[in-house]
Each structure stands twice: as structure tokens, then as C-alpha cells.
Specification:
Number of strands: 20
CATH architecture of one domain: 2-Layer Sandwich
Largest sheet: 2 strands, antiparallel
Number of helices: 13
CATH class of one domain: Alpha Beta
CATH superfamily of one domain: Classic Zinc Finger
Oligomer: single chain
Distance between the termini: 91 Å
Radius of gyration: 26 Å
Shape: globular
Strand content: 5-15%
Strand order of the largest sheet: 1-2
């Protein structure tokens, strides 16, 4: 029986291809010194069979003697390929570029994941609800919405989270650390990904587009939430009153209307709030901070939506239209008040609907 044995150069190329491992997008900093278990048994089996086809690939030994050290930060890796991929973080080398949008990545695997955003491919499917995802790690996190699992716990206050990055973000409430700063306005963030999203406020970039109505968004999850407007899907239901919501965070906030929980307190006056964003806005009443400025007239505002409304005074935009008389308005709240002139509902009567006797 004859076995084909490739030349030394071919062996080296095969070794390099084998050592290219899949790493989720934005996870370059989390390349560990130990390989993670496969999330797909079928993929793991196919890889084992492929690597056994007539050619033996000698991988780096995981022993301490063959460890590879990063001379810049001291991080240790068991594979030379892992170290090589890690070094691109320090050098800034992003040699893998998307031919459609030009975005670049440190590793080929990250580009592969990115391309799925253009193709719409979602190979990882939830067996419970059928929802698809572009990365196995996204599916793993999604499954926790069904199981209720929250494996990440804060050592200080014991609050638990379903995402590691949620815990990281939460820890900043204890430490106050925000290492990633915007060069334009100086605003700081806990995570680099948050800064990336923030920069779109300055650049106006909205890369996530709804295929149904064409509306664009700065974040992928905003598009996901928006799509439920078209589908009518409300998968999160209140166990107390049965009201349903399109987002889990909306359900969390709603439940607090039953429990009366207000976990976010002002350190200046002690007033409590149901959401951290409401607390942030409240604190500005003490500090006088108005971080949102109009580029046309330089007027400043404490809230982003106030700036949005103000900009319409310059542009003349009136996106909210009455279906009865077709009169347009700059704000949805003004449209609602106007609609009552057609229905005959007085404002005082309307307000009584919100007051419990």
C-alpha cells in the first residue's frame, strides 16, 4: 500500500492551515493558553478525519518547554500560531480585509465570521426556537435566555449575568474604570466595542440596514429589535400580568413596575431610579453637564433625544404624521396630543387613566 507523503514545503503549508483556529469576532484579547472545547461535535469529528488523511501534522507540544511568550505583554501560548495571531494586536497588522466593505481583521477566522453579515448566513441554529446565529458563541449566549443560566457572578455584590461582557461592564460601577476614550469628545467606556459604537455618533455610520423598510442602525441588536416591529414577535412575557415585550430588557424594566425595585441610586441626593440611564440623566441636573451639542448653533443638551428634536428645527424634518389629517410633527408625543383633538379625548381625562385610585 503506497501512502503519499508531501514534500517539506507542502507539510509546512498544511501545518499552517491546520493551526488557523476559529476565534469569534472582537475576541482577539481572549485567546487563551489552552484550547477551548469544540462547540460542534460534528465539526470536531470532521476536523479529526481531515487531519488524519495520509499526512501526519506534528502540532506544538503543550508542555512548558515549548511555550511561546509574547515579549511585549508577557502572555504565554502553547502554539506558535496562537502567538503569531496575538502579536498582530500589538503591531496593528490587519491583513485580512473584506472585499465588500473594506473592514480589516487580525485573523482569517474573524473575516469569515464578518462575511456572514453580508451573506446573511447563520449556520448555528437554536434547537428550542429555531433562531440562527453567525457564531457558535452567540448561540451559546442565546441558549441562556431559554435556560435562565447566568454563570458570571460579581464578587462584590453577587449580581449574576448571562454574558461575560455584561459582568465586565457591571464591574465598572464598582471600580469606575473606563479605559477606552473617544478622541473627539473625550467620553470614556469600559469596553472597546462600546467606544466603536459611540464613534458612529460622530461619523454618522449606520451599517445595519433593515431589508424590509430600509431603516439603518448603528448597532446590530437595534436592527434585531426593530425587525420585531415587522414580524410582531413579542417573545418576552410578564409572569404577573401577561404583558409581552419584544426585548428582554423591556420585560426586566416592566417587572420593576410590579416589584417597585429601583436599584440605581443618586450618590448626591439619594433619589432612586429603575434604570441606570435614568440615573445618568438625573445626575446631570446636579453637575449641569450637557454633552450633546448642535453643530449648527452650538446649543447644548443633557440628553441625546433633545438634540435630535432640536436638529429638526434646522432641517425642518417632521417625521410623525397624523393619519387623520396628515399634519406632521417633530415629536411623537406632540402627535399623540394632536390625535386627541380628533378622538375628543381631553388631556385631563387621558391623564386620569394613569392614576390609580
Amino acid at each position: 500500500c503506497l501512502i503519499y507523503t508531501p514534500c517539506r514545503e507542502q507539510q509546512f503549508k498544511l501545518k499552517q492551515e491546520t493551526e488557523d483556529f476559529m476565534v469569534a469576532e472582537h475576541d482577539q484579547d481572549r485567546i487563551d493558553s489552552k484550547p477551548e472545547p469544540s462547540e460542534s461535535p460534528d465539526l470536531e469529528e470532521n476536523t479529526r478525519i481531515r487531519n488524519s488523511d495520509a499526512v501526519t501534522v506534528q502540532e506544538d507540544s503543550p508542555s512548558h518547554e515549548s511555550s511561546h511568550f509574547c515579549e511585549t505583554c508577557g502572555k504565554v501560548f502553547t502554539r506558535r500560531a496562537n502567538l503569531k495571531a496575538h502579536l498582530r494586536i500589538h503591531t496593528g497588522d490587519k491583513s485580512y480585509s473584506c472585499r465588500l466593505c473594506g473592514r480589516s481583521y487580525f485573523q482569517r477566522s474573524d473575516l469569515t465570521v464578518h462575511m456572514r453579515k453580508h451573506t446573511g448566513e447563520k449556520p448555528f441554529v437554536c434547537e428550542v426556537c429555531g433562531k440562527g446565529f453567525i457564531q457558535s458563541s452567540d448561540l451559546t449566549i442565546h441558549i441562556r435566555t431559554h435556560t435562565g443560566e447566568k454563570p458570571f457572578s460579581c464578587d462584590i455584590c453577587q449580581t449574576t449575568f448571562s454574558h461575560a461582557h455584561s459582568l465586565t461592564h457591571h464591574m465598572s460601577t464598582h471600580t469606575g474604570e473606563k479605559p477606552h476614550s473617544c478622541d473627539t469628545c473625550g467620553k470614556s467606556y469600559v469596553q472597546r466595542s462600546d467606544l466603536t459604537v459611540h464613534m458612529r455618533i460622530h461619523t454618522g455610520e449606520r451599517p445595519y440596514i433593515c431589508k424590509t423598510c430600509g431603516k439603518s442602525f448603528s448597532r446590530c441588536n437595534y436592527l434585531t429589535d426593530h425587525m420585531r416591529i415587522h414580524t410582531g414577535e413579542k417573545r418576552y412575557s410578564c409572569g404577573t400580568c401577561g404583558k409581552s415585550f419584544t426585548k428582554s430588557c423591556s420585560l426586566t424594566l416592566h417587572v420593576r413596575t410590579h416589584t417597585g425595585e429601583k436599584p440605581f441610586s443618586c450618590s448626591v441626593c439619594g433619589k432612586s431610579f429603575t434604570t441606570s440611564s435614568t440615573l445618568t440623566l438625573h445626575v446631570r441636573t446636579h453637575t449641569g453637564e450637557k454633552p450633546f451639542a448642535c453643530e449648527i448653533c452650538k446649543k447644548t443638551f443633557s440628553q441625546a433625544n433633545s438634540l435630535t428634536y432640536h436638529m429638526r428645527t434646522h432641517t425642518g424634518e417632521r417625521p410623525f404624521t397624523c393619519q387623520v389629517c396628515e399634519k406632521s410633527f417633530t415629536q411623537s408625543s406632540i402627535l399623540k396630543a394632536h390625535t386627541r383633538t380628533h378622538t375628543g379625548e381631553s388631556l385631563s381625562l387621558h391623564m386620569r387613566c394613569h392614576v390609580t385610585v
